[in-house]
Amino acid sequence: MEKLGGIFNPSSPEMEALSSLTLYTIVTTVGILLLIVAAMIYIIIAYRKNPDDNQEPYQNFGNLNLEIVWTLIPCAIVAVLFLLTCNTMKVVDPPVGDHEPDIIIIGHQWWWEIRYPKSGVITANELHIPAGKYLLARIESVDVIHDFWVPELGRKIDAIPGHPNHMWIVAGEPGLYIGACAEFCGAQHANMHIRVIAETEEEFKEWEKQELVIPPTPRTGLAGNGAKLFQEKACMNCHTIMGTAAAARVGPNLTHLNDRQTIGAGVLTNTPENLNKWLTNPQKYKQGSLMPNMKLSPTEVEAIVAYLEALK
Ligand code: CUA
To answer: Are residues 207 and 68 in the same domain?
Structure first.
């Protein structure tokens, strides 16, 4: 398992700002807490009842100066945190202006559709970006409210049906950044992983070029059989494979499934063995998923796996 990067492991300018704001807030509030606890302990001990003294203790009714001081200090603390927050918001949400989105991220129950409108690339669950470059993402949903969150890279942002949100995404360094849906969205909310793959500019361009290649459909052998089954067995009612009649958008685009690291938005690593298990009974790995158990025979599963593996 790769390490799950927390908010204190920032890898973008946006997250650095958020991370330090969080740290300042925690240090301030914990400092106040410790001060109060220390004062309480001191007062309890210093002013405890003297067993030899049965007199009512001296009663102190207010102190104007003290009241002013302990009103002003919290006001000052809140004002400083407010200014720091405004500053952070400016860094975290740079203005969108009239920029067209570079990426469209669409939440589905329970996976992420990812479209690059400028190049036409469509993929799922794995967001490739060139490191060091700010990309504008438009976040949408087709069903319920989801929330896109990659803790090392930035803020959370809701994917709301009928109300697109915008967010700048940037990764400081090439690498793999793991995220997840952060808004409860149904049975498989926990299995709506996001992988952000930040690459060098050249690697990203190469990947984009590769994604636009229409793979030839195998006509013979096991893979050829699989291609036929894919069209006959209702797979094509939900999925797209470029260069074939399959052009539906209910499920993930499978044209370059081979290039992806996981299956089912992160429930299984993408290997032929796991693809075989997944096709045999997806409900076993992701109960409630819209991908039904197609009751395929082992030979049919094998053929479809061979087909999907042959798409390159
Ligand atoms: Cu999608 Cu939670």
So the answer is: yes
* Closest atom, ligand 1, to C-alpha of 107: 1
- CATH classification at residue 238: 2.60.40.420
Q: Are 204 and 218 in contact (CB under 8 A)?
A: no
Q: Using CB atoms within 10 Å of the CB of residue 142, give its burial: 0 to 12 exposed, 13 to 18 middle, 19+ buried.
A: middle
List all residues 6 or more positions away from 246 whose beta carbon is below 8 Å from its beta carbon. 230, 231, 235, 236, 239, 240, 254
Q: From ligand 1's centre to the CA of 103, what distance in Å?
A: 19
Count of structural domains, the chain? 2
Residues with beta carbon inside 6 Å of ligand 1? 107, 110, 146, 181, 183-185, 189, 192
Summarised one tens digit per residue, pLDDT across range 245-261 is 888 888 899 888 888 89
Q: What separation in angstroms does the CA of 217 have from each of 221, 276, 309? A: 12, 20, 11
Return the DSSP state at 300.
H
Q: Is residue 55 part of a domain?
A: no
Q: What is the pLDDT of residues 157-191, one digit of tens each?
A: 999 999 999 999 999 999 999 999 999 999 999 99
Using CA atoms, how far apart are residues 137 and 261, in angstroms rounded to an integer?
22
Same domain, residue pair 127 and 264: no
Are 204 and 256 part of one and the same domain? no
Domain holding 76, by residue range, is: 1-50+60-212
Q: Centre a 10 Å sphere on the Cβ of residue 214 and count the other Cβ atoms it contains.
A: 11
Asked whether residue 199 falls in the same domain as residue 235, the answer is: no
